Amino acid sequence: MTNTTNKNTTASFEDQAVKGSDKSAAEMLGTPKPLLKSFKLNTPMKRILFAVLMLFMLVLPIYLQGFNEALLLNSLVFVGLYVILALGLNIVVGYAGMLDFGRMAFYAVGAYAAMLFSVPVGGWAENLFGPGFATFTFPFAVVFAGAAAAFVGWLLSLPVMRLRGDYLAIVTLGFGEIVRITLQNNPFEMTGGSVGLPPLGYTIPFPPFFEYLRDTVYWTMGNDFIFTVTRNVYWYYVVLALLVLAVIVVRRQDNSRLGRSWAAMREDEVAATAMGVNVTKAKTLAFIMGAIWGGVAGACLGFFMGNVSPEPFFFFNSVMVLAIVVIGGMGSIPGVIFGGLLIVGVPEVIRWFAMSHMGAAGAEVQATVSNMRNLLLGLVMVLMMALRPYGIIPMKSIKRKLYGVDNKDSDKSEKPLATAGAAPKGGAK
Hints:
The chain is mostly helical. The chain has helices spanning 2-19, 25-29, 44-66, 70-95, 103-129, 131-134, 137-157, 165-184, 210-216, 231-254, 257-267, 269-274, 279-305, 315-328, 333-357, 363-387, 396-403, 408-413; strands spanning 218-221, 225-228.
């Protein structure tokens, strides 16, 4: 007991000496507070707020389409796709602790795989069963794209098993560029080169129920509000459903035995290996699981755009996805969602405002304000890394280290651990 007291006293004196004051650093600076607290549905009010938020997300596309804000609705679809991509990257970077700059490779593989699958299979289903069956090509194309991206993720995991930090980042960066350039060079006349897919004269089938909804759903309110199910509305709901599915699956993986292996590997790979964690298997599964969501997002991109070409898969977009994860909070699902809204959503809102509401100012002013979104994006990145290096909403383990226990009830339930030198009950004998 005397030993422990002496150590604590020495640490306190050292802290006071460094600061040049008779107060400790904690007393002078105060306890740091998180920027955003964890949102738990543990009270009726929070449940009501969550239900209102979900209702808002469901009604938002109806409002935007009804008032002909197609550009903003189109931007929201891309925000959802980038959040799905970031959730996949969060497995690799946030959970497993491996730096990955090649996220666009899986995005591209998923998009091209979906196109290569849909054109022949859709035509075959239409000729054999009729036009209605071709519309169900999309769900199978998503599965095929996810499987293709998972296979590519497994291939990437093979050469990077013994790499860490900067070396791993450089290898994944090079891998992403290899995939993009390969697709652009049209190997075996399969990818269409710079023109992309599908080939001229071919079209991909419409997704399920889109034509029926487009032809039957029609609402009007006055002279200004006219709602029909357009491509943007349809894909908003599809991407939202896939985003909810991604959140559920990724969250379950984090709480699984595999998730605990990723956490151990992230904190200390050598210690994890010593405690029996199969690091090779954990790394491989991290790349595969993260790649699957990249493939799913890529398939949605191809069907949403109606075609696919190499332009959306440049390296800068991989940096954007990584910025979403880092700025939102590595390992934090709410942080990734918030980071996607901030990094992708806010610049798109600025561009929408410039293009839709500044027509009277002239084309030059519109272009200037629209390009300001890139300046804002860079400024947000600099400020966040300076002020919030652990992200807007850090993951729970980091939040506990930074801010202490965030649940007030746990303070009452947790009892202090006995120190090594503490005397047993009843006094020393």
